[in-house]
Amino acid sequence: MNVKELSNSRYLKKEEVGDGITATIKSVVEENVAMEGKPPEMAWIMYFTELEKPLWLKPTTGAQLAAICGSEESDNWIGKRVELYNDMGVSFNGTRGGIRIRKAHGSPAAAQQSTRLPTDPAVKAEVWNAFKLVCKPGTSDQDAAVMFAETVDVFFPGTKPKDLTTAQLRKMGSSGFNPTTNPLETGEALDPSDIPF
Domain boundary residue among 96, 114, 132? Predict the structure, then answer.
């Protein structure tokens, strides 16, 4: 276990945006962010079309969004493309770095590539192993990889297996490749690093 796993959050963290990811604003809603059993704590949360996790808005990011989108009303932010990045110039309680927002640059195609968060290796392995189970016994990993690529193109036309997001993998798994803990018919389950995508 890595100690960073203890702080796993349902909201975007600075480490997940790195030098910058571009995303399209989907909605801004007020939600209770208090931990279970604690008094309600309401905060504004921003969701993105391409990202699985939302962003917990703070005064600074709210001001940045108002400037970028040309409006202080969040209803006018929907559909706007922005870039989220980890600003190492931010310091809070001795910890450096924090999520900041800037205007998105580049073509929509380039933006699509930059929205890719690292795919969860556990989900990757789960879906791959489930897919292998529906292959004929004795199917080689190479042949299975080709069939998997064709299947991905059915689910998400034009998408290559290596570009799948965690959310897309989960969608595939829940739509026909039900993850299972059973061992593969052709041997042990593959380690995520061995998966050919």
Answer: 114
Tell me how far apart the alpha carbons of residues 107 and 175 are, in angstroms, rounded to a whole number: 32
- The H-assigned helical ranges of 76-165 are 108-114, 121-134, 141-155
Helix-helix angle 121-134:141-155, to 10 degrees: 100
Q: pLDDT digit of tens for each residue in the chain (197 aa)?
A: 454 544 557 899 888 888 888 899 999 999 998 888 899 999 999 999 988 899 999 998 999 999 988 899 999 999 999 999 888 887 777 778 889 999 887 544 444 444 445 566 777 787 788 777 777 788 888 878 877 877 777 777 777 777 777 777 777 777 655 333 333 333 444 455 556 55
Domain termination residue (choose one: 77, 98, 114): 114
* Statement: the pTM of the whole predicted model exceeds 0.70: no
Domain that holds residue 94: 3-114
Q: Which two tokens stand for residue 120?
A: 């969860």
CB atoms within 10 A of CB 71: 13
Question: CA 55 from chain center: how many Å?
Answer: 12
Domains identified in the chain, total number? 2
Verify that 126 and 181 share a domain, yes or no. Answer: yes
